[in-house]
Amino acid sequence: MSIFSRIFDTIVSIFFSAAGFLIIVIMCSVASEIILRYFLNRPQMWVIEIASYAMLYITFLGAAAVLRKEKQVILDFIVIRLKPRAQLILNCITSSISTIVCFVLFWFGLRIFMQLVISGQVADSAIGIPRAAVIVIIPLGSLLLGIQSLRRTYNFLAKMKQHLLTEKEYQVNLTDEI
Questions:
Q1: pTM
Q2: Range of 95's domain?
Q3: How many domains does the chain have?
């Protein structure tokens, strides 16, 4: 495995762990909000806002790791009925489209992030978090997901090449037998 792959996989794993940590933070903050609001009559204004930002972060922090582990939701009721070669082709096409979409999302997310950094806009909320701090995860997570999707496309292409080589060897063996 190349050094780039090891570094990338480490970053993806760190982001995935951070997503898990944020899930725990949301769980604890919502539980404390329930106790404070309904038992002590002292609601906290920040809990819902932080939880909603954290859910955005969880999505983009964990997406590349989920794709790397092939644990994404797949509607394969049609695909499983196809021949292996057709499955590889279809997976390669969908993975390529996913790669393009991720890089487009990265590009536009980065542009919006830069505009927010320059303007210094702050969210209209109880906490007043800078909008750039909320949005930064979209281009970052999209970039990681795009790279992982590109790796996935490459793997499907390699499997297709191997499949084609295996088919050619099989055809050569058949002709030798005749």
A1: 0.84
A2: 3-177
A3: 1
